[in-house]
Amino acid sequence: MSDKKPISSVNDFVVRFANVNGSGSASANELFARAILRHGVPVSPRNIFPSNIQGLPTWYEVRVTEAGHLGARGGVDMMVAMNPQTWDKDVAGIEPGGYLFYDSTKPMPSTKFRGDITVIGVPLTAIANSTYTDPRQRQLFKNIIYLGALAALLDMDPKVIEQLIGEQYKGKEKLLSSNVHALHLGRDWALQNLKCPIGLRVKKADKVGDRIFIEGNSAAALGAVYGGATVCAWYPITPSSSVAEAFTSHCKKYRHDAATGKAKYAIVQGEDELASIGIVIGASWNGARAFTATSGPGISLMTEFIGLSYFAEIPAVIMNIQRAGPSTGMPTRTQQCDIIACAYASHGDTKHVLLFPEDPAEAFEFAAAAFDLAERLQTTIFLMLDLDIGMNHRLCRPLKWDDARQYDRGKVMTAEMLEEGRDFGRYLDVDGDGIPYRTYPGTHPTKGSYFTRGTSRDRYARYSEEGTVYADNMQRLVRKFETAQDLVPRPLQANAERPTKYGVIYFGSTAPAMDEAIGLLEARGHQLDRLRIRAFPFHSSVASFLAEHDFVYVVEQNRDSQLRQLIVNENGIDPVRLVPIVHYDGSPITARFIAKAIGDHQDHLKVTPLRKAVS
Amino acid sequence: MTYIAKPKFHHPGLKKNELGYTHRDYEGKISTLCAGCGHDSITASIIEACYELSIEPHRVAKISGIGCSSKTPDYFLGNSHGFNSVHGRMPSVLTGANLANRDLIYLGVSGDGDSASIGFGQFAHSIRRGVNMTYIVENNGVYGLTKGQFSATADRGSKSKKGVTNTDNAIDLVAIALQLGATFVARSFSGDKTQLVPLIAAAIRHKGASFIDVISPCIAFNNHAGSTKSFDYVREHNDAVNRLDVLVGRDPISVDYAPGAVQVVEQHDGSKIALRKIDADYDPHDRLGAMTFLQKHAAKGQIVTGLLYVDPDAEDLHEHLDTVETPLNRLEADDLCPGSAVLDKINASLR
Lengths: 615, 351
Ligand SMILES: Cc1ncc(C[n+]2csc(CCOP(=O)(O)OP(=O)(O)O)c2C)c(N)n1
Ligand code: SF4
Hints:
The structure holds two protein chains of two kinds. Helix content of chain A is 39%, strand content 19%. Chain A is built from 19 helices and 23 strands. Chain B has twelve helices and 13 strands. Bound molecules: thiamine diphosphate (TPP) and iron/sulfur cluster.
């Protein structure tokens, strides 16, 4: 019995599946998301999983969004509650007027439901048990049976799902037909026993276009392939492992010598992060493009080597797929919490280049660009992803590559150049941009060799503890960092319809939620100019943006507003003018959250003086 | 470490090797280690071995960690690139360098502090992966650069300069290297150039992970009575199992020793090692035997030196990874980038 009118919505709702880890539900849930996509309706799915392998709760959320909002929305319109452990919390999370779908083989007492939701029971276990004898099959097909029932309830075209199953089990006819059979078991039961469809519906549309559906980690790995990385050294850590795994599988497909079948790449699973970054530095020193992928705890371990890369000026690419810290924190939850740790990683005075892609398409582009930047600047480049884009499928524009593009191998002095008599000083600033020339080991029998060390040395790489020599080098490194400003991706600005004194700065995976939040804020009467930062060092347009606005909100997914700290630190700006908007519970930031936080602050700014005047 | 370059003056009568290089071409900067430091003798042996092998100096990459021993690459092969990385992490840097360019010769120089403590893991893993390198530990049982603390190779019961007795068990890097599958394992003494030079030469010619533990007394902190890594102690307790000569190229062996006293090991690249047996029972192809032999002698307080194990058919990491013959650092965008047409197909598969 529902005392609130059931939600009615076409192509705009959130379904959340509550499952137990290890129950085999992941593929059925993903199939659900893909099926909606094939209806031409954008989806934005999120995997919410615990840090263990079996037995703990896991959720998969599918935001169906004809408008194409790719951030998390917050709230659940339909809960597919398959996990008794989380039942109470799951039921409580449903929006008023929403739907609860559950396995009614053992019916729940009405006290376990809420009065303001619609309860839909399907005896999934009973159906599965009457059809299958094998326990594993019973479990696995139960997932497909609920998918079939949902298809009926949400008015989805079963042909679309059948086609997807067909693609998935191509060449495995038996699996294909048994899955299709299970799908229809669920669908037929629902059609015969329930009122189908319900208020939530999927209607065919044409809103996906040529966009692709890919995880950020996979896209970044592909960027490394296209960017010419030949050496990858890594150590398993969630949520970054899938970068190396994807790089391995992409390399297996695209990187073998046609004649000999031999590998044009080397991938080493290091014994730890120290070894991984050491291998990267050794390989880059020797002229190969190399990278590692890791997450916060790995960055902590790598910092000594990162300092070496900075000071000895050796290229390195680190993909940091951020998760909630500190320490082991919440290893399977998302955050953008390593900004400061990476920007100033290691001891002494250091500064590093950070790239902040907003989605898989940018993860691909920035990953490829990272290798050019690392070699051009001869330093570590951090590609800063996070779990939310790294491990979730995201709809994004197709990946693009310009075949005319040449790799930028940076300033490398060749044997010919040395032979011409060019003055080689490893740390000489020949061009005034702070970037010296390097030589690869083995280049020339008598010229161009030098000793690489993390100890201070002069412009000709000769060991020196002379204060002026040290300071000269440190100053050049500052110049080099200034050069980097114009080489890294620039911030993107989008202005409000009307001129405004307020601005908002954000970055990375916050982008889709921010884009949506702007609409919500406009609806509340607030106008804001937006600046999406895509890299550190900050381009001069960041300082201009700050100067042009009275208040600038800085939206980020960490407790201490780390990007704001970095902006204050690097721009010497009055911190009062930068308002922190932080979200850090490990779930992806939502448009609702941003709009509320900024909206409330804006209301306060506008309303407070008025009230004072009245009283 | 020094920035003092040696004068470039060459005596016209200096002996030249097959490539026309003189001894001087294999030297580096002037050492700033303590006079009499065992590490300097190892430097001299490396110079000698490379000269004798007629290696092109610039085709060597010399990589080290941090410590007095790790400074030594600056003192040999001045025309090759050196890399003084971070404490204990030489092996990973060397592994990466080797992956990038399989055509160079990789010489890793480390200390016992560097390799047996902070870098124990990296030491183990580079050996276990079979990186084609010559890994030399200049083992003095103490931390030289940080002034004399015990290292993990200091023997239990041995005494520090201040008279403190070491109560921890020692790590025997040779035993560990054998256990981890190193395909060339030797121990030597910095004061025994006749033994050390051919060992280094053979290790360089060996394809795979070569490991040489060289006991190298620290004059400043570990050369007193009560130390088991002093010059006197090592001389008194040294038990060599063999002497070896390295014969480059395919020249017939013409060593005139008593029949049966010489064992010839042919390596991958065709070079040969002639082993003059000192211990008649010793078989350097028997990994297990080497391990027990070592333990038995260690129990008697003897230091076994010589080529302890060699597998002439060893494989290296590049073979394990089945990488192309062209060094990875020489591959161009054409070799590496699958191009836009492939990307279009990838895009299509993601819809
Ligand atoms: C991370 C780190 N910890 C400590 C040190 C200090 N340190 C420099 S050299 C050294 C020990 C060197 O001993 P060893 O490797 O045996 O070389 P030796 O000087 O005896 O040749 C230590 C502990 C350092 N450089 N880095
Ligand atoms: S302190 Fe010891 S190891 Fe270091 S240079 Fe002096 S003698 Fe050699």
